[in-house]
Amino acid sequence: MRRKEKRLLQFAGLLIAALLFLPNVGLWSLYRDRVFDNSPDTVDGPGGIPPIQGLNHMRKVAQVGPDGVRRTDWHDYAAMRRDATRIGNGEQGKPFPLTETDQVDQAYRENGFNIYVSDRISLNRSLPDIRHEKCKQKLYAEKLPNTSIIIPFHNEGWSSLLRTVHSVLNRSPPQLIAEVILVDDFSDKDHLKVALEEYMTRMPKVRILRTKKREGLIRTRLLGAAAAKGEVITFLDSHCEANINWLPPLLDRIAQNRKTIVCPMIDVIDHDNFGYDTQAGDAMRGAFDWEMYYKRIPIPPEMQRDNPSEPFESPVMAGGLFAVDRKWFWELGGYDTGLEIWGGEQYEISFKVWMCGGRMEDIPCSRVGHIYRKYVPYKVPGGISLAKNLKRVAEVWMDEYGEYVYQRRPEYRHLSAGDMTLQKELRNRLNCKSFKWFMSEVAWDLPKHYPPVEPPAAAWGEIRNMGSGMCMEIKHFVSGSPIRLENCVKGRGEVGWSHGQDKSLYHPVSNSCIDSSPSERRVFMNSCDPSSLSQQWLFERTNATVLEHFNRGTN
Ligand code: LR7
Ligand code: MN
Questions:
Q1: Whole-number CA gyration radius for the chain
Q2: Which long-range contacts (CB under 8 A, 24 or more apart) does 198-203 make?
């Protein structure tokens, strides 16, 4: 064969291969249409796929960046065109027109959102592309890690669960999805048994795992993570909808730094009408108040973000939707398995990734909708409290800042939260930084919104030794006086002390304070000097409840 002919043949071969295997053009795209577009209520656009203004010939060419990384346009324009033509209930993320009869209590009872409406919207419904304009131009590394998608569920509605899975498969490059793992947390609803398994036989990438008893969302996620094979694990709630090109921006950040945990923008799917929209204020930092409620705070101007499409650091995640390098997740110890049913795990993973050498970001170009429910529909087994989870997190991670939490939630102080040895060991082993560091370097803007309140921190009266029953008193009412033990006599000036807000141990009668000389290992009385650290004392623990009773004289 002559050289020229050989070239021609090679070229033709390549062309055929491309037609066959490229995700957006060849047979594969037809196959995908067939597999995923068969939900019973699918509404197809009229007669084929007309070109949409601005969506054709948009693919940007791959570029090699200054770092030598080849970046490409990951958009699936064919799918976007198909989506843009869809009309029908809830399409383009539009609210479903509700009549009063649609809003009966029964519709909300089992799921906390209107399941009647959900059932009448296609499992493949289209969503509005509400990303920042700049997101539409962005290129991401050509070589990205693949991911296992892990979706825990407990008694989730049929259409809301399936729409989660459909949206993920419809809107992710297939080569980036290693698998989708549905983890059933001991649901008792019929539709989640055989029917679900049968349905999923048509989706070869979907696996179903089940817990053997009700574990709660934290250990359920762990079960999925332990079975995952992807390089990255991506957690989603069981009532989500992934939006256009949501996945590459997440994986790209992990590819750049495997210790970065990334969260998409979480959009709101209305629990009444299923309209799709941003959260109020859209991009914000994740934070908490001192009662440990999750809060969102505005991105401070000091962060100088001139490009709102760029990732930004967030102190705390919302909890349910994030991607993490699989090995890094396990290096961080996964989650504390002592966390029960619901809540607290978002703080645990956030504090520990920041304090133990990683970081966390929100990614404006990645958007996923979540149904924010009207109320929690499922039962929480008796004896289980969110308080215990929060206390574990505070005890292991929050150091002296735990005190602020106990100030606001005195009932946590003496709550027993189980054994935390393993968690504390992990923190030591990973050589994690202090919570003070976290507050000053990561969540530095949080106190402006939720100022921690210094404990009214006080104890006063006699200081009685529990062995001898005797009291601490000063020998002379003069500076330099030693401190000694003497029988306690109520009202005798020598034995009255107060441990004030300023952390001094004050003796009001002599108007002097306990001072210390660390070099001589000696304590003695001295005139009070509020600026002197040698006069400040901190109880390891104080009991706000007891103090409060004492203050009010209720004992
Ligand atoms: O016992 C349970 N077993 C489970 O498997 C209880 C729940 N689950 C599943 C459930 O089906 C769902 O898929 O776990 C997932 C999360 O439970 P939800 O949807 O009841 O939680 P939520 O959306 O009310 O609450 C948020 O905070 C939780 C705290 O533990 C979790 O981190 C959720 O994932 C989290 N959701 C989000 O971050 C989405 C944005 C909402 C916010 C803020
Ligand atoms: Mn949820």
A1: 30
A2: 199/162, 202/35, 203/35, 203/165, 203/169
Ligand that lies nearest to the alpha carbon of residue 321, given by its number in the listed order: 1
Q: Is the pLDDT assigned to residue 51 strictly greater than 80? A: no
Q: How many domains does the chain have?
A: 3
- Quote the domain boundaries for residue 405: 386-448
Residue 349 to residue 338: CA distance in whole angstroms: 13
Q: How high is the pLDDT of residue 43?
A: 34
Q: Are strands 505-507 and 512-517 parallel, antiparallel or unpaired?
A: antiparallel
Beta-carbon contacts of residue 1 (< 8 Å; ≥ 6 apart): 9
User: Which residues neighbour 454 within 8 Å (Cβ) at sequence distance 6 or greater?
Assistant: 501
Closest alpha carbon to 91 in 66, 123, 136:
123
Distance between CA atoms of 456 and 502, rounded to whole angstroms?
10
Amino acid at 202: R
| Token pair belonging to 294 | 């999750």
400 and 538 in a single domain? The answer is: no
Q: How confident is the model at residue 45 (pLDDT cuts 50, 70, 90)?
A: very low
Task: For residue 231, tell me if it sits in a domain.
Answer: yes
User: What b/e string do you get for 377-391 counting C-beta neighbours within 10 Å, with b at 16 or more?
Assistant: beeeeeeebebbbbb
Q: Do the beta carbons of residue 184 and residue 176 sit within 8 Å?
A: no
Range 87-115 average pLDDT: 88
Provide the CATH number for the domain around residue 433: 1.10.8.460
pLDDT score for 534 = 86
Atom of ligand 1 nearest to the CA of 185: 5
Q: What is the pLDDT of residue 41?
A: 38
Minimum CA distance residue for ligand 1 atom 27: 319
Beta partners for residue 70, in sequence order: 64
Q: Rounded to the nearest whole angstrom, what is the distance from the C-alpha of residue 307 to the centroid of ligand 1?
A: 31
**Of the candidates 238, 230, 274, the residue with the CA atom closest to the CA atom of residue 92:** 274
Tokens linked to 272? 């009444």
> Separation of 219 CA from ligand 1 center, angstroms?
12
Question: 535 pLDDT band (50/70/90 cuts)?
Answer: confident
CA distance 147 to 154: 23
Q: What is the pTM of this model?
A: 0.78
Helix (H, G, I), strand (E, B) or coil at 526: strand
Pairing of strands 497-499, 483-486: unpaired
284 alpha carbon – ligand 2 mean position (Å):
19
pLDDT at 15 over 60: no
Both 117 and 199 in a single domain? yes
Residues 342, 373 contacting (CB under 8 angstroms) = no
Confidence of residue 25 (pLDDT cuts 50, 70, 90): very low
The pLDDT of residue 371:
97
